[in-house]
Amino acid sequence: MSLKSVLTVLVLLFTLANNAIADESSALANAKIYSTADRVIQSDTITLLTLNMAHGRKDRLNQIFLSSDTIRKNLDNIADRLLQLDADVVALQEADGPSFWSGNFDHVGYLAQAAGYPMSVRSDHVESWLINFGTGILSRVAFKEVISHDFPRSPPTLRKGFTLAQIDWQPDESKSPIAIDVLSVHLDFSRKKVREQQIKDMLRIMKKRNNPVIILGDFNSEWPSSESVIRKLAECGGSKVYKPDATDLGTYKSGKYRLDWVLLSDDLEFKRYEVLKDVLSDHQSIVVEVAYLGDREQKMAAANKNSADCDEPVSENKPVD
């Protein structure tokens, strides 16, 4: 067995034993913000993209067997596509910081520079010199606020979490900009119970913030499944998904499974929804165009009439103020 293979085994054993080295943190504790930008998106609609980056390995078995140059080339392919699509906001999962197993460089910062995004943030839900990854967001406009949130530990799987970035959007020139929360989220792949606890964390934070919200990411769950957390998140959060029962919107294993989703609060609507066919990762990316419907107060009042099982989330993490 080669030295790299031995180190790979040691990395996996080490991380499983410690189950995510990142601190139980909220707010900006482990978020990296890189630059500044314009303050407001001034457009009738906002365009967003979500992609699980697979640690920069594209469709290969494992990133640890790839050279740093190969991983950079894979990220260049993602950047080229982002330049073509020109999305306002990009949500990323399995987004790596400098670490041994994926080339020892910051994937989010590299992608932001290559694709011309002036704002970027990376949240490290798992962090050590050996492995270092989480979720991230790229944006054309400045962040008003950023929250990096780690879900409670979930042995033996690695810790997951989300990045929340608040941005200003002015869909109507005659009215003041509105603050929109954009979440890039990654849920546990192995157990329904863990995923349910994770969405309860999300619901608790969104309820306290009470903003229009767009949630994008890898939920490791399908709508028709009896273990679906997407359905519960939509019902309890007063949000909607695009054609939940569609069979042609898969994003994993060449479209066989629909694990990646976009959810909108009820004051927003889908104007476009597309699963891209590009092979940029073992997941396919999703592009959405979103419009604002208004009537925020009325829609939130209706959303708050949730059943009792939505009202008592359990969390080991500290509250976010």
Commentary on this structure:
- The chain has a 7-stranded mixed β-sheet, with helices on one face. Strands 2, 7, 8, 9, 10, 11 and 12 form a 7-stranded mixed β-sheet that branches.
- It has 6 helices and 14 strands.
- The model is unreliable at 3-30 and 312-321 (pLDDT under 50).
- It has 321 residues and is an alpha+beta fold.
- The chain has helices at 3-18, 68-85, 107-115, 192-209, 229-237, 296-303, and strands spanning 31-33, 40-41, 45-52, 89-96, 119-127, 132-139, 145-150, 161-169, 178-186, 213-218, 239-241, 260-265, 268-275, 286-292.
- It has one domain (21-310): Endonuclease/exonuclease/phosphatase (Deoxyribonuclease I, Chain A).
- Helix 2 (68-85) crosses helix 3 (107-115).
- 24% of the residues lie in helices and 29% in strands.
Question: What is the element layout, followed by pairings?
Answer:
Layout: H1 3-18, E1 31-33, E2 40-41, E3 45-52, H2 68-85, E4 89-96, H3 107-115, E5 119-127, E6 132-139, E7 145-150, E8 161-169, E9 178-186, H4 192-209, E10 213-218, H5 229-237, E11 239-241, E12 260-265, E13 268-275, E14 286-292, H6 296-303
Parallel strand pairs: 2-8, 3-4, 9-10
Antiparallel strand pairs: 1-5, 3-14, 4-6, 5-6, 7-8, 8-9, 10-12, 11-12, 13-14
Helix pairs in contact: 2-3, 4-5
